[in-house]
Amino acid sequence: MPQTSRSARVAAVSVLDDPTRRALYDLVGSRPSPTSRDDAATALGLSRSTAAFHLDRLAQEGLLTVEFHRPPGRSGPGAGRPTKYYLRSATEVTVSVPERHYDLAADIFARAITEASSTGGHVRDALRRVASATGRETGERAGDFDAALAAGGYEPRPDPAGGLVMGNCPFHQLAQRHTELVCELNYQLLDGVAQGLPGCGRRVIADPGAGRCCIRVLLEGAGNGTAPPAARPDSLLGDSDDRRSKATDGD
């Protein structure tokens, strides 16, 4: 799940709202070699101090990277201090409202396809394993189940029936088009988060009618009230072997 906070990503993108910074960012990104403050100032008709201020702000937000070296032809003891150069950062910054994480889904799907191709196994089974492993890693890293949900863009909120429901699906558009596949990924991912946090007191169930996401979280050991009984992913989607056998029943 995303490790950079949403506020940090918003801050990084918002600096480009300034036309001068946006022009400097585009200039640096369009060049095959690093750009100095003097080069940038000359290219855009800015004072050196103005160019330096905005370039450093872009670097501060992680949109540009900085390196120091002497210009060509200047070396030796009398060459002076190294010059500061800027390059476009390889870091990608994405902000969506509501929060979405399609890159995470794409990574899980790609890893599952790669695993299935190399082993000859079923892609859906590989998807379950990869999503669960990703969730466990997330849980271990986060150290707190509810914090992991919030960081993942799920917007957890109290459920009157007990536990939590999600106010947002980070994979909304994909879920609209490929509901079963994405709901399976979602269940395995969040169940994996709980597995990565032994004793977290949370139990994940698949519930297509819960909130704005197909996941409901129950508190371990607490009464479930009117919440639906726990659902396994195969009760929602069907085991791969079951699906294959059912497909031949009518033959």
Automatic annotation (TrEMBL):
InterPro entries xrefs: ArsR-like_HTH, WH-like_DNA-bd_sf, WH_DNA-bd_sf
Biased composition (Basic and acidic residues): 240-251
Chain residue ranges for the region called Disordered: 224-251
Protein name in UniProt: Putative ArsR family transcriptional regulator
Organism expressing this protein natively: Georgenia soli
